[in-house]
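Notes, Module 5: Reading structure tokens.

Key idea: the token line is not a picture. It is a compressed description, and you learn to read it the same way you learned to read a sequence, by spotting repeated patterns. We will look at two proteins. The first is printed below with its tokens.
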Amino acid sequence: MPKHIPVRQCVSCRTAHPKRELLRIVFNQAGEIDLDPTGKKPGRGAYICRTRECLELAIRAHKLDRSLKTKIDEQVIAALVAQLEALPKRDDTSDDS
């Protein structure tokens, strides 16, 4: 029997991917917004593709604001972009599925 793989939808481009391929942005109870590369931090989460384009579209169209149910200011946006750029690149050319 094949193992169940959780699937989530990118809030920006609306495509469904396995949870591990997406990046989670979390809004915690302390009011902080941060990237959650592990996908296990507590708080309200939104998933986006691991591309700068999806992050920029989600910010520009206020899709992250709606998903996290809070207003995201410019300092947080700059920090999210910097954190996304610092993440190691994934090899999307492999076809292991």
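Here is the second protein, with the sequence above and the tokens below, as before.
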Amino acid sequence: MNRWQVKSLLLGAASALLVFSCSGAEQDALPFNEEMPGKARVLTFELRADSLSEGLNTLELEVREDGEPVQVDTVFVEIHMPDMGHHGVQAEVLPTPRGYEAEVVFSMPGRWLVDVAVEGEVSDSCQFVLEVQ
């Protein structure tokens, strides 16, 4: 084997390794934790997830007023992927000791929007933008 053949072989192996290491199937989905004020600026919403990946995901939601957790009468969580025309799917929301929990199914990787609205003595809403792997 001459020097050029060795270089070509090494370059091909390096390219294959780079493509394999950058493929979505081999990457771990990262945890998600974001806090944002509501549109009415009354409440603060914190959304957490161990990971964001295609398939079933558990979203944890905490609602606060002036830094203190609050319980509200009704919580709505709806996901949609406007770039692909996936219309809103409303999730069932259950209370937990830290706030609320919703199980959602992301049908494909990409940018998803999560609309959160709460109603009770105080009402507010917000929208989270998630990158699902």
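Summary for the second protein:
- The first helix runs from residue 3 to 22.
- The chain has a mean pLDDT of 82.
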